[in-house]
């Protein structure tokens, strides 16, 4: 029988290749909020993943971004972002992924992220290490925040919610080598695991954005916490992920900054 890992890898690839094949086509765009969009590709990718899980593991629960979750009382729950980086995808910016995680009794035991444009498959199992295209990966060795390349993102309610990450960004950008806002939180976390980014922080993310990347960073030897340094959970206000070495310095910047954008 196919293992959970093999299943997740196979379907992350299938959904990712589906997204890649439609990438240059004209997309149907529906606005969920002022700047929050969903395309036909998000919905079709999700349908592909959800129906595969329902067929193969009919008793498992599922939490997927574009549809309502199930609540069957299973000890297993799949957390699915069928397309992380929708804004990029809709604009033809080739940085997006499929993110699949499996939780057992509330613990993430498996995380798979596939970037179809780069053909990069990231995977981690609890206590089994993290891998990129089959090769073990680990977080970077950067010791100082001022030498670090960081990533972040902004929430979809940036225009109306004063807790919008702008003050944290303004402080952090003066203290690091550089910051990227690449537009896919799951892939940002995978890049931390692979040692490409030294750290990542963001507010208001959902379980499907962070579950797989959280396990990847942890299994690659990094550190994932809430903004105050406590253990990260899906109820955390923010996520702070790093190589461990610059974690306290990032936390310090966040803790010393007034989060609220006074213009709003
Ligand atoms: C978004 C991306 C983005 C992050 C947003 C997410 P979506 O997910 O991960 O980088 O800044 O907060 O909601 O909507 O493309 O799946
Ligand atoms: Ca997402
Ligand atoms: Ca998404």
Give the termini distance in whole angstroms.
55 Å
Rg over alpha carbons? 18 Å
Average pLDDT: 97
Class derived from helix and strand content: alpha+beta
Figure out the total of helices.
Answer: 7
Helix and strand succession? HEEHEEHEEEEEEHEHEHEEH
Describe the structure.
The protein is of the alpha+beta class and 264 residues long. The protein is 31% helix and 26% strand. It contains 7 helices and 14 strands. It has helices at 4-22, 40-56, 86-91, 166-173, 185-193, 207-219, 247-255, and strands at residues 29-31, 37-39, 61-64, 76-84, 97-104, 107-115, 120-125, 129-132, 135-136, 149-152, 178-180, 199-203, 223-225, 238-242. The strands form 3 sheets. It has a 7-stranded mixed sheet, sandwiched between helices. Helix 1 runs antiparallel to helix 2 (40-56) and helix 5 runs parallel beside helix 6. The protein is globular and about 50 Å long. It starts with a helix and ends in a 9-residue tail after the last helix. The mean pLDDT is 97. The structure holds D-MYO-inositol-1-phosphate (IPD) and calcium ion (2 copies).
Properties at a glance:
264 residues, alpha+beta, seven-stranded mixed beta sheet, five-stranded mixed beta sheet, 14 strands, 31% helix, 26% strand, globular, binds D-MYO-inositol-1-phosphate, binds calcium ion
